[in-house]
């Protein structure tokens, strides 16, 4: 009898030890401090899911400024990814530098089995994205792309209403994203420098905000690629954005629907909103929390229901909790989830075609 009790106690202890080990914080390295979104991790309250163990940044003045603002020690800052990996052995890395460097991050981390999350978009070009995808698959790492709109409960509600058939078959989607422009809203000099560099950012507003619509449409259409992509760009603030576009319109055609993406650095008021039109009604995701559902009545009448939504449930309420949950195997992303690699490869194909269309004045056909 004692033997069985001893075995049972050992089993319980092993189970508890395993459970506790699984809950150890994910050791996260941060590569780059020039992206304005880096404040999300630097100012994040200490939690059990993720712990920042190292930072890579060659601009010591920038690192010192952010160190004083957010309280991390300069001893955490390294000059190269290799130095950081050797010193602190991160399990995952978050990229917060320019978009061009996303490929180099994956090239360094993937062979070492280190998972990667980058800020949107996935890459500066489809060519870079394909290399990143190949490395992620070869070395079996998670490669996520963080979009702020992935956290929006209104987008999730709109998706659910559409796919339940509430407004009938999909006919048109309009996605509008942007603000007054990087310089006008006062981003840091370091952030401005790469946002307005066609090599480091892949383009201007067409990439910076066009990626949101491409990502959402790929999710809404569950991986179905558009038949064609047509894009027009303008430069309405040459004094602020001399090397890149700052206004774009992208038209995507599908067999029975159309999408119009309107990324811009010329909106007088910052926005991230979406309108979805079906045969019987429309859904307006006005912002993160406010959604309107209208069902058609007669010619121009409608019955309206208004939703005021709270935050999404964890871990889908912010990117680092989700990254940790995915790495631990607690969360398996649904197919074509906005964070997923399969979604973002199609999103990059759309963006690549949009840039080509804007430069050539031609509609670009997409092969499914």
From TrEMBL:
InterPro entries: Gfo/Idh/MocA-like_OxRdtase_N, Gfo/Idh/MocA_Oxidoreductases, GFO_IDH_MocA-like_dom, NAD(P)-bd_dom_sf. Residues 27-144 form the Gfo/Idh/MocA-like oxidoreductase N-terminal domain. This is Predicted dehydrogenase. Keywords: Signal. GO terms for molecular function: nucleotide binding. Residues 157-283 form the GFO/IDH/MocA-like oxidoreductase domain. Residues 1-21 form the signal peptide. It comes from the Bacteria. Transmembrane segments: none annotated.
